[in-house]
Structure formats: structure tokens, C-alpha cells
Task: structure prediction
Amino acid sequence: MSLSIRAPWRPLTAAAVADAPAATGVYELRRDATTVLVGYAGGSSRFGLRGELTGLAGAYPDTEYRAEVTTAYLSRWRELLGVHLARTGLLPAGNTDVRGIGPIGPKGPVGP
Amino acid sequence: MIDFSPTDEQRLLVDNVRRFVRTEILPLEADLDPDAGELDPTDHQRLVAVAERMGLRNWEAPAEVGGPGLDVVTQALLAIEMSQHRAGLYAPCYGVFGSPGLVQLAEGTEQQQQRYLYPTLRGELTAFFGLSEPSGGSDPAGAIRTTATRDGDDWVLTGTKLWISDADRADYGLVLARTGAGRRDITAFLVDTDSPGFTVRRIVHTLRTTHPATELELDGVRVPDRNRVGEVGGGFALAADRLVRGRIPYSAGCLGVAIVAHEMAVEYAKIRETFGKRLSEQQGIQWMLVDNEIDLRTSRLLILAAARRADLGEDIRADAAIAKLVCSEAAGRVVDRAIQIHGGLGVSKDLPLERWYRELRIRRIGEGPSEVQRLIVARHLLGGSGRRDDRRS
Ligand SMILES: Cc1cc2nc3c(=O)[nH]c(=O)nc-3n(C[C@H](O)[C@H](O)[C@H](O)COP(=O)(O)OP(=O)(O)OC[C@H]3O[C@@H](n4cnc5c(N)ncnc54)[C@H](O)[C@@H]3O)c2cc1C
Result:
């Protein structure tokens, strides 16, 4: 499995997320090529990724998203945060309150 | 016939922990993601303080290092209670009583205890246990390829570890590495995760999404000799000791969730009606419940028998192996039957059964798979492993 989400970036608009899967999984939001939030649609999310992303569409204008369906959403979420930390030295702006994340994968900016 | 009735003190402790799970853990858990392995930090801190007041913080630690110094039977009874909630198998009470740490550090040097053990017991540091490798975990003495080479006052560690739980968030770990060519030439080292050359390559996503397994790379990681735990070549015995001791609470955790699954199945069978009768009136369902009861009672007796022998200072390798084998497999069967009795509801995330079902499957592999437990018992019965190189070690 790739360390990053492989799905293409799409605009975070109500129309674009309407066909996002109604399943558990992880997503990433970026603005101006900077990841601003890594989140997940967990086992009690209503309508899974579609529901989570629809809820975020208004709150994060001018952003793009990419998502991945997985039942291992918590460990994948933690991995994406760890990968971001290793590459940039920081957590995304929307995740700074998350504790216990360590770097995962190569350090420094690599790949998409 | 051995009397396994709890003493008054044990009964009091068990009642306190049971009440704690029901009044503190279950209400918080109701609002968490069904796969969550952690509490909100504020709740965690509050409950750690409660655990301290109960005198049960770091309940598995011996008295010499500041733990309550409970005997193994009492520990087993408490482990059965602490796991009786959704996250209970791998995050009993979300760690507020302390996480099962590296207890063998209680036998480490004074310096190792000051630097690693006490901060871990205070909740300031977290650790991983690095034994398994891509070349195999069942037979670590043969499979470990990670090498440790002496260089002046340091050791230089190089290799790959696989399946290592929680290493991505750990401050340090106990790493087993090869220091010679023989099967038993394995030595244990305390490795800081911020050491140059130490990388968490990825998380290995499994059926368990909390406390995830990781793949680690050690590329020339320098470790001072003062971080060697035990003798050179003593690592295998140290790891084996950790695994043997851990099998009793491990088995008890399996039993704990199985008890709740069974209670849920009994309750549901009494209220659900099909074909004009309650499920509890259908003989097919009654037999499932009876089989559950037999699995639970067998598990409990094996755990307590192993724990009692441990308290008497006897060799419990075979007893712990039998308990681990039977309890992990029996709990899987109990939860499977409970799911069947609940029908579709059983596999939904509305109930904890599906999580226990997934996580219990790992219990038949982690900390020595069922086949390895059988090997241990066979060795106990037959004497030695029959391997020629056993005589060398
Ligand atoms: C979620 C998870 C977390 C883990 N966390 C840790 C951790 O924190 N630290 C750590 O060190 N390890 C950890 N492990 C590793 C675990 O201990 C190993 O997976 C386990 O020991 C088995 O090793 P293996 O997977 O390499 O299987 P192998 O050793 O390759 O064995 C494969 C299968 O063959 C069977 N087998 C082996 N020998 C025989 C035989 N002689 N006869 C019959 N059958 C045999 C085994 O039982 C197993 O079923 C974790 C594993 C998982 C899944």
C-alpha cells in the first residue's frame, strides 16, 4: 500500500463530494498545495466519507480533497499524519491537537 | 480439588474494578468511535487520578518499583474485569491503570530503571517490544536477522522488524538482535526511537485498527552498551520470560470480552422471537449458549490454575501456553456464537461483537500462535524440543 492516498485531488464542493463513497475511510484536504486536514469517516459516521466531506465542504472553501475507503480508518489516519509529520516536520493545521503521532516513512519532502 | 474462590481482598478489588468499568468506562465509550483505542486526554487524566486513588495504577508492576505488587491470581482476576468493554481486548480501561509495560526492566540496571522504567510507569514515556521480523515471529531464535555489532562502547544495530505494535508513537523500545551465529545468541537493547538510523517505515494495517503494528528499519543505529538489558546472549531468555508471564493476563483479557459477549447473547436470546418462540426456547440456541458456558468455565479454570502455579514459583511455561491456546480459541468461538445469535445486529458496529471478533482472531497469532503454544506443551511432555542445537544452548 502506498504511504499517501493515491486517489486524485478533487475540489471540495457539495457537487463533487456527492458521489464520494458512503463508507468508512480516510481523507485529506489541501489548500494551495498544503495539506490542511487529515480526517477519517469512522464506524459511527453517517454516510461515511460522503457524509464527512459534505459536512466539511462549507467550512473549508477553496480546498481540494482526496479520499480512500478503508475499514482500518484509525490506523490509516494515524499513518497519514505520521507521513505528513516526517515530510514537513509538522502536523497539518487542522490536526495540531492530535497527540502521540510520530514520524513515519522517509524524512523530508518526497513524492506527491 | 483446588479452591479458586477469591479472598475477601480479591473480591473487593474485583468489585471496585467492575464498578469502575461500568460507571466510568462504558459511558465514555458510548460516545467514541466504535474502533477507538484512546480516551479524550482530559478524561484519561481524570481516570488516571481515580486509578491512583484506587491503588491500582501500574497494577502489574512489582512493589520494588512502586507498583501494588499484586500476586498473579489477583492480577488475572483484575485483567478479566478490565477487558469487559468494547476496546477492552487491546486497550483495557484505555490504559488508565497503566499499560502493560516492559516489566523485565524491573530487573534492568539502576540507570535503565531511572531513564526508562520509572518515566514509563509515570506515563511520561511509551515503549514497544521489538522481537518479530519479516523472517518470522514463531521461531525468533532462528529467525532474527537484525544484527548488533560491538563498536567501542556502543553496539550498532542493523535490520528490519515487523509487526511491532505502537512503535510509531513510542519513545523507546526493547529490541532483540543477533550478537552471534548460534540460535541463542540474541541480546536485548533499549533503543531510543529518535536515534539516527531508526525509521518507522509504515503501519501494517490489520484487523485491529487501534495500537497498530508497524514495520521498522534499523540502519546502523548506535546504542550504548549501558542500554544492553541483561547479558550478551541473554535476550532470548528475557523475551521468553516476558512472553510466558504475559500469557496469563493475555488469556484473561480474552476471557473478559467472551464473558460480556456471552451475557449479551443470553439476554438477547431471552427477548428475540422467531417462529413464535423466543430464541432462548430453541434448542439450537440453547446448545450454543451451553457451549459458550463450557468454554468460559474451562478458560477461567486454566487461567487461575496457571496463575496459582506462578504464585507458587513453579515453572508455568506449559500452563501458560495451555491457557493462552485454549482461552484465545475459546473466546473466538464464544464471540462467534454470540454474533450468530444476534443475527445481522451481531456484525454491525452498533454492538462491540464485531470488533471483538476481529481482534480475537489476532489473539490466536500474537504473542506466540496456537501452534507455538502446542510446541511448548509438547516439549514439556517430551522433554526438550528434539532439536540437536538445543543441547548447545
Ligand atoms: C497485530 C499484531 C501485532 C503484533 N505486535 C507485535 C509486537 O509488538 N512485537 C513483536 O515482536 N511481534 C508482534 N507481532 C508478531 C507476532 O508475534 C507474530 O506474528 C507471531 O509470532 C507469528 O509470527 P509470523 O507472523 O512471522 O508467522 P510465522 O512464524 O511465519 O508462522 C506462520 C504460521 O506457521 C505456524 N507455525 C510455525 N511453526 C510451526 C510448526 N513448527 N508447526 C506448525 N505450525 C507452525 C505459526 O503458528 C503461524 O500460524 C504482532 C503481530 C500482529 C498480527
